[in-house]
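Troubleshooting log. The previous structure file for this entry was overwritten by mistake, so regenerating from the original sequence record. Sequence copied from the archived sheet and checked twice against the printout by T.R.
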Amino acid sequence: MTKEQEEAIEIIDKMIKSYIEADECGLSNNDFKHEIRAMKTVLNMLQEQQEANKKKDKIIDLMTEIFYKRFKAELLLEYGFENEEQLKQYFENKAKE
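Regenerated output below.
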């Protein structure tokens, strides 16, 4: 996640907290409640996506390690991968397709 995305999430989180505080003080209306629900839903979606990305990254790391250790010579000869990082980059690019 980029720094800009993290900052946006922090801002939304602060907005949610201020809406909740306003609601607790009796300063809100139904629109606040709908906005809070919508923002919480979006934050949950982002967190789920972040977890999925972490899982994907871990899988790519494990695949890279196993393939490189097992097929180091073949990967160098056939594909020109000189190190694990090149192979990892290949898997990451394939995952984006």
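Residues 54 and 60 are 10 Å apart (CA to CA). Archived copy saved in two places this time.
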